[in-house]
Amino acid sequence: MDGMGTVPYVFARLQRLGIMASLAVFGAVAAIALATDAGAAKVTVLGAARPVKPACPNNCQVLARVTGFQAAIAGQKKPFRAPFPGRIVAWSIKLGRPEAKDYNCLTDGCGSFPSFGEPKARLAVLKPLRKEIRAGRPLYRLVRQSPVEDLKPFLGTTTTFTLQNPLKIAEGQIVALSAPTWAPAFAVNMGLNSGWRGSRKRKRCADTTDSKVNAQQARAGRAHQAVRTNRIYGCAYRAARVLYSATLVKRPTTKK
Question: Less Cβ crowding at N or C end of the chain, within 10 Å?
Fold first, then answer.
């Protein structure tokens, strides 16, 4: 816990799933694509990267009340930007397993930390508002999202959620992860060429080991979950990853 006693070090950060888990997702969804269109569909895994360990339980840092997306992984920029239009058919998340005292603190509250409730997450599709972004306002619109998933049964594992209703995504849109409560899908000490952007205003971007400051950030934060609304993603963090990926299927253009 890095000298913080029983209070977990909470960040609103995002990260990607390791490549081995991503490949497993690729295989499962490729089978769906083959069955659907005789092998003609193109499949890619957004967020595929080398496998890393979650921060929990050894240095229990988690995502809390935030939506965010990885801007870079080990120098690879925009790894969650859709390279072509299609549908997100599945997503995966790699979860740490907090120790009992940390789990209870995050769920029920302790010290300066509020009660977050049980761990949950969902996928989000964001549209960058490019005119605003070019003007220095990192504004994004939530266009679609997956159902909320209960993460408690999957702590300490990598799991895949297949979407009964795939999420349509346009080229250039971004797949993000929302943690309405908290999610131990986070890794630290990833190097300065890795970073992510979170749905908070710049004045709430403190990146610190001070538990009181972290508690204030988490208490003030809210995940971006109202579809067709815009949100400033003003916090850019470095040296961390969120452990998730998304499988994108492109339907081929039929020539007549």
Answer: C
